[in-house]
Amino acid sequence: MKLRFLGTNSKEGDCPTLYATDRDTYLVQGWRIYANDLLMQLTLHEGETAVEVPTELFEHLEKDGLPPGEFRRLEDPLMVLTPGGTYVVQGQEVTDAEALAQMSIPDYETVVEVPKAAITALLEEPRGVDLQHRAQPAL
Q1: Which residues does residue 81 pair with via DSSP β-bridges, in sequence order?
Q2: Best exposed site among 7, 18, 26, 87 by fewest CB in 10 Å?
Q3: Are 129 and 31 in contact (CB under 8 A)?
């Protein structure tokens, strides 16, 4: 898997980071989630996990040709905005050794892979039931 660095919001490195891949996906490097109350709100399938990232991380999508702006819909693979002002992103946990070797990942972080189409859909205007999702913050 080939990666293209889109950005991070840290000057230190080793912080939440966004990458585009050659597989029409994004890799989202973020903080591991240990809070049971938050994990219980997710439906994680085998091989999936979730990470928490600052909302500003997704401003870097503009470098991949997506329109700037906030997510307008909050649904899988993105859960909801947390009370702390972060997003929880779920997806396939990245285990590809070649891809992981291209990143600097501290022990308290991990990486998920999310389809580009799923992220693009979140930028669209909400409809009906999506408005309810948007209005319900995480615990």
Answers
A1: 87
A2: 7
A3: no
Backbone region of residue 135 per phi and psi (left: phi > 0; alpha: psi in -120 to 50; beta: other values): alpha
Coil, strand or helix at 10: coil
Alpha helices in 59-122 (DSSP H): 97-101, 116-122
> 2-60 pLDDT, tens per residue?
999 999 987 665 589 999 999 999 999 999 988 777 778 788 889 999 999 998 999 99
The answer to whether residues 51 and 112 touch, using CB atoms and an 8 Å cutoff, is yes
CA atoms of 31 and 108, how far apart (whole Å): 6
Contacts of 26 (CB under 8 A, 6+ apart): 6, 18, 19, 20, 64, 113, 114, 116, 119
Cα 114 to Cα 111: distance, rounded to the nearest angstrom: 10
pTM (two decimals): 0.84
Query: 3-state class of 55 per DSSP?
Result: helix
CA-wise closest residue to 62 among 138, 118, 14, 120: 120
